[in-house]
Amino acid sequence: MLLRVARSLVGFALLWFTLFHQLHVDWSINPQYSYGWGVPFLAAYLFSKRWKDRPAASVKPFSPWIWLLPALALPLEMVQEANPEWRLVSWTYALFVVGLTMLLIWTMGGEKWLRHFSFPLLFVATAVPWPTFVEEPFIRGSMRMVAAFTVDLLNGLGIPAAQRGNLIELATGTVSVDEACSGIRSLQSTIMLALFFGELSRLTLPNRFLLLLLGGMISFCLNLARTFLLTSIAAKNGLGAIEQWHDPAGLLIVCVTFLFLMWLAKKFSGDPAISVVTDAVPLPSWSFSASIIIWLLTAHLAKEFWYRSHEQGKTARHAWSLQWPTNETSFRFQRIPETTQVLLRYNQGEFARWIGPNGADWFGYFLRWEPGRAAAQLAGNHRPESCLPSTGLRLKQEYGEKLFKAGNFTLPVERYVFERNGATYLVFFCLWEDVPLGLETSERFNWRTRLKAVREGKRHLGQRVLEIVIAGSPEFVSAEKMFADFLEKQIVIAK
Q: Is 377 helix (H, G, I), strand (E, B) or coil?
């Protein structure tokens, strides 16, 4: 009996493993979705609770065309290999897996089973990253909103503060709302928890909606309180004091939200009676499970053959890294804002600040993406002209690309001039693809270009970004020479 069950379900187990394997990259390198690791286990628990009071089964016949449905894995695998960060593909793959599983449920128990088990299956969608066109405006808007509320509260209590984009300027320095948390991570985990507790308590639809609404409100209020607390500490004790309270405040928000939602769900529940069903469980067709395995293996082999055949003959460019000027007495590594980590999803990242030649204030980012972990288009969508304005900087002039010597090779660097409150910021930005894909910057996030990358077998083979900001330099020419000297000394060939 156990062998028959395993044979009938092994294909679906492999299908779900493939989905979670694709999503785990975001769960691992994106703090915003770290809660995703728990979602599969919570969904399995909800399914087991539903299994205990399942309705009587009504077996449905298989149609011949059903065996062709797993073939959709082939185009999805091909597109995702070239665009692993494309969330449209992640959502399509998740719906594909959930849809096939729902089809299995329907054939085993009919419409009643489908309605009964739908929620635990759809609950997995809470671990799929939000579409970028929804997430990015929401993050930026929430950061500005939290900053505005916090500034009003600080000024109301007699603490001088001013808002500059998502920055809060205090007498002791400037606090980014990234450091004080924009609230997006706790909001998304709150949505997941509200849906979980609503299902666990079998709440009515209006009560589930009310639980979601109240959870969102408490999440916003707690994050606003957190931001106000951290900025108040910074105003009194300096910016360095934020680090001591940042993580404990975030953990407190998670615990309070969890307990609040659990208590509220119990208040709304009516203790419904659960009847245990003991009728025989119909097994799905083993051939359907086998067809899933065959199509998944076919998709994987075809994907590898297609991309490897197009990569033959391509040579990697110089693999280089940045050797920071740690010998400078003013040199300090600093924490990269959480929102930057969320948006860019890099594998390795460093951010530093120091006083350079002529007393200029230098800021530097060095980010690294490993092969296959994110699409080569990712960094191209977050460039100085699109990201720095959110910090209150205004683009004054763009000088275009110039080749700078770095040892025995050259780096293509784009040059910008920004300003804020009369101060000038000179920005040097280099995006380096380890194996050039031949995509123009202007079309990096065009959907036609994404499909073109699939057609031409161009997948991500590694990339890195260097961004240097020089503030306080007297004029552009001298800053450019300082940057050229910096590259000659600090760029080294990676081992």
A: coil
Decide if 300 contacts 233 (C-beta within 8 A): no
Angle at 77 between CA 283 and CA 83, to 5 degrees: 140
Residue-by-residue DSSP string for 445-471: T-HHHHHHHHHTT-----EEEEEEEEE
E-only strand ranges, 139-245: 162-164, 167-170, 173-176
Residue 116 has pLDDT above 60, yes or no: yes
C-alpha 288/C-alpha 65 separation (Å) is 11
DSSP string computed for 28-75: HH-GGGGGGGGHHHHHHHHHHHHHHTPPPP---PPPGGGGGGGGGHHH
Report the pLDDT value the prediction gives residue 382, as an integer from 0 to 100: 66
Provide the 3-class DSSP secondary structure of residue 275: coil
Would you give the DSSP letter of residue 238?
Answer: -
Residue 441 has pLDDT above 50, yes or no: no
Bridge partners of 353?
A: 332, 363
- How many Cβ atoms from other residues are within 10 Å of residue 205's Cβ? 8
Structure tokens that stand for 320 in this block:
């280089």
Q: What is the pLDDT of residues 282-302, one digit of tens each?
A: 666 678 888 899 999 999 999
The residues pairing with 424 across neighbouring beta strands, listed in sequence order, are: 419
